[in-house]
């Protein structure tokens, strides 16, 4: 699930560079903190590439128009708590959720449970026994291999540790938890292999 999918038929000059498209998308969504984002495309051989900002777009494409590209997080910030814009935090959160689900960010059991609970809190808000049946976590596909033991731990954390957390709190906690792992080389690389630090 892409954060934003961009389908373009280029009528611009053949020398239009990648940065033009990045800026165009960021401006369209009023995204001010642009540095963390880029545009990715898949070539006919199914290889993923980042659109290079300083090269003409048409010269980078090997497929026929129209070109389908994805607007994605290119790297996560070193100090996520310094992110100022709510939209930036939200887009980073969506990408983290995607990377965790596809197994591109790996972490130990206890940290995976906390990360999962933050995601559930961001999606559902506080635990409510009248609204959340015993197996409510089963509706969330959070990890590629989601065991019953992990689901029970996520429920425990969601129920007992994250009450009254807002969306912003859980987005920040999710970023901070992932940052701790990748900086310590516990989680491995993200799908883009350009992630030097995660939130």
TrEMBL record:
GO terms for cellular component: cytoskeleton. InterPro entries: Band_41_domain (IPR019749), Ez/rad/moesin-like (IPR000798), FERM/acyl-CoA-bd_prot_sf (IPR014352), FERM_2 (IPR035963), FERM_central (IPR019748), FERM_CS (IPR019747), FERM_domain (IPR000299), FERM_N (IPR018979). Residues 1-199 form the FERM domain. SMART domains: B41 (SM00295). It comes from the Eukaryota. Coiled coil: none annotated. GO terms for biological process: actomyosin structure organization. This is FERM domain containing 3.
């Amino acid at each position: 699930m892409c954060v934003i999918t961009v389908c373009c038929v280029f009528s611009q000059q053949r020398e239009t560079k990648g940065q033009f498209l990045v800026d165009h998308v960021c401006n369209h969504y009023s995204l001010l903190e642009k540095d963390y984002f880029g545009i990715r495309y898949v070539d006919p051989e199914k290889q993923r590439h980042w659109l290079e900002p300083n090269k003409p777009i048409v010269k980078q494409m090997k497929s026929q128009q129209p070109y389908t590209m994805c607007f994605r997080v290119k790297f996560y910030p070193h100090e996520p708590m310094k992110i100022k814009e709510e939209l930036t935090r939200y887009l980073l959160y969506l990408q983290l959720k995607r990377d965790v689900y596809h197994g591109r960010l790996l972490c130990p059991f206890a940290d995976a449970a906390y990360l999962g609970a933050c995601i559930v809190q961001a999606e559902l808000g506080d635990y409510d026994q009248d609204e959340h049946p015993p197996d409510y976590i089963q509706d969330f596909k959070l990890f590629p291999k989601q065991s019953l033991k992990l689901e029970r731990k996520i429920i425990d954390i969601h129920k007992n540790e994250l009450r009254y957390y807002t969306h912003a709190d859980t987005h920040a906690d999710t970023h901070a938890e992932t940052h701790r792992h990748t900086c310590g080389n516990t989680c491995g690389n993200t799908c883009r292999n350009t992630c030097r630090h995660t939130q």
